[in-house]
Structures are given as C-alpha cells and as structure tokens.
Amino acid sequence: MKKILFFVVMVWFVNFSYPAFAYTECETGISRIWTGQDGFIYLVFSNGGSAYISPGDPDREAILATMTTALVAQRPITVRYDADGVTCTAANRMDVQGIWLH
C-alpha cells in the first residue's frame, strides 16, 4: 500500500510541478519593417507596438517572410510574446515567440 501511495504522490508532483507556459498574443497589423543595423529586424505594428528580432534568432528568416507577406497583402497578424501580460502597444519588445498570419 505504501508503494502505491508513494507512486501516486510522485506522479502528482511530476504532473503539477512544472511552471505554467505563459505568453501574450496581440492581434494587429504590420505597418513598417526595417532591416539592417548588424542583422536586426525592426517591426512596427499598426497598433503602435514594435519589436526587434535579433540576428541570432532561429526564427528570424521565417518571421521576416511572414511579416513581408502580411505587409504586402495587408493581412492581419497575431504576435505571440514570451511574457505573460504584455501590453500590446509596448515598444521595442525583444521576446517575439512567433507570428500568426491571418
């Protein structure tokens, strides 16, 4: 009985001890894209927010392609930030996790 109880308690701790995966999604549009300055990409959103994508970001090229498509096609996007509770009009964010193209 003690072994079963120990097993149940351990399973419970493993399942519920992970931190929550928090993020913020902001629906907006893209109004400008700047490329340059040592490989950084600067994105200006139609809601007033903006973000930087660093040269070392593994998603850099995919984000640039998605943003260019959204700008040319004038399609809305949803930007996902790593942090929870981000104000969608915040400027100069560097924690873009990904972008949805609508």
Give a description of the structure:
It is a single chain. With 102 residues, the protein is an alpha+beta fold. It has one domain (20-101): Beta Barrel (OB fold (Dihydrolipoamide Acetyltransferase, E2P)). It has helices at residues 2-16, 60-73, and strands at residues 24-28, 30-36, 40-45, 50-53, 77-81, 96-101.
Share of helix among residues?
25-40%
CATH-scheme architecture: Beta Barrel
What percentage of amino acids are in beta strands? 25-35%
Biggest pleated-sheet summary: 3 strands, antiparallel
CATH topology: OB fold (Dihydrolipoamide Acetyltransferase, E2P)
Could you report the average pLDDT, rounded to the nearest whole number?
A: 88
According to DSSP, the number of beta strands is 6
Low-confidence stretches are none
Secondary structure tally, helices: 2
Any idea what the shape is?
A: elongated
What's the alpha carbon Rg, rounded to whole Å?
A: 19 Å
How far is it from the N-terminal to the C-terminal residue, by CA? Answer: 54 Å
Structural class: alpha+beta
Q: Numbering strands along the chain, what is their spatial order in the largest sheet?
A: 1-5-6
List keywords for this structure.
6 strands, OB fold (Dihydrolipoamide Acetyltransferase, E2P), 102 residues, alpha+beta, elongated, 3-stranded antiparallel sheet, 2 helices, single chain
Summarize the structure.
The chain has helices at residues 2-16, 60-73; strands spanning 24-28, 30-36, 40-45, 50-53, 77-81, 96-101. It is an alpha+beta fold and 102 residues long.
